[in-house]
Design a protein that fits this description.
Distance between the termini: 90 Å
CATH superfamily of the largest domain: GntR ligand-binding domain-like
Radius of gyration: 30 Å
Strand content: under 5%
Oligomer: single chain
Mean pLDDT: 84
Number of strands: 2
Number of helices: 11
Largest sheet: 2 strands, antiparallel
Structural class: mainly alpha
Number of domains: 2
CATH architecture of the largest domain: Up-down Bundle
Shape: globular
CATH class of the largest domain: Mainly Alpha
């Protein structure tokens, strides 16, 4: 009867100095996969499906900028979802800048007229979370504005020029009345109108978002001692009408450099004051 051969033990790897087996490549693979770095995929939540349904209506053209969504009760019945899920979806779309909520008897959820909402939130988060400084944001606006002014000199139509002129006239009147906050908002709107005159929606969204974030610093800083905004913009409008690209770019750059200095100096003073107050606060 032939002698039965013993079955070889599984190979576990090379021998170490003390005679034990070193782990094999397979052992390493097993230990890596044991950590389970991925979580199981779950079904999508209802509010995400609602968001997609509204986005699909936008993509298809059934919903357009300025349209009002049906009331909460009507929309929840149409979609066969709870009002809680619907509110969560509307809030998500509002954060994304797709809808805006308006109060009053004619209020409700409206499709935004601008695509700048999500860009604005991104810029604001970058600034608030310390990923960028105010100086970096102002420098970026200086660069973007140069491109906007160049495009405006080439593309602005008579209707665009009239809107810019009307904005400056309204700014002058608000200044005369001493309504500084409204005057500041009107002056900030000039940037958006200028960007719109280029006919490039991406440029408009970027500049509108930048202006929206910078606006709070403008309100805190107040006007500089000798505010050149009115004279500067009247000159800029004439240069755009004349298609004087070089002159228009120089006018805008000169104005923004002075404004940036004013905003940065004010912000430094504010931060120093905050630091002193924290130092004096009891531990």
């Amino acid at each position: 009867m032939p002698q039965q051969r013993s079955r070889p033990e599984p190979r576990t790897g090379r021998k170490t100095a003390d005679g034990t087996s070193a782990p094999s490549a397979g052992d390493h693979r097993d230990s890596r996969s044991a950590g389970k770095p991925f979580r199981p995929i779950k079904t999508r939540r209802i509010f995400e499906e609602i968001c997609d349904a509204i986005r699909d209506k936008l993509v298809s053209g059934e919903l357009k900028a300025g349209d009002r969504l049906p009331s909460e009760r009507e929309l929840s019945e149409m979609l066969d979802v709870s009002r809680t899920a619907l509110r969560e979806a509307i809030r998500s779309l509002e954060i994304a800048g797709i809808v805006e909520m308006r109060k009053g008897s004619r209020g409700g959820a409206f499709i935004t007229r601008s695509g700048a909402g999500q860009v604005t939130r991104t810029f604001r988060d970058m600034l608030d979370f310390g990923h960028v400084s105010l100086a970096t944001l102002l420098e970026a606006r200086l660069m973007v504005m140069d491109a906007v002014v160049r495009a405006a000199c080439e593309r602005a139509k008579l209707a665009d020029i009239e809107r810019l002129s009307r904005n400056v006239a309204e700014t002058v009147e608000l200044t005369r009345q001493g309504r500084y906050e409204e005057r500041t908002l009107k002056a900030v709107e000039f940037s958006t109108l200028l960007a719109n005159s280029t006919g490039n929606q991406v440029m408009s969204a970027i500049l509108e978002a930048m202006a929206s974030v910078i606006r709070r610093f403008v309100l805190i800083a107040g006007p500089p001692a000798h505010d050149p905004v009115i004279a500067s913009r009247l000159r800029l409008i004439e240069q755009i009408k004349a298609k004087d690209t070089k002159g228009a770019c120089e006018t805008m750059r000169s104005y923004l450099i002075k404004l940036n200095e004013h905003l940065l100096n004010t912000e430094k003073v504010r931060l120093r004051g905050d630091a002193r107050r924290r130092a004096r606060a009891p531990a």
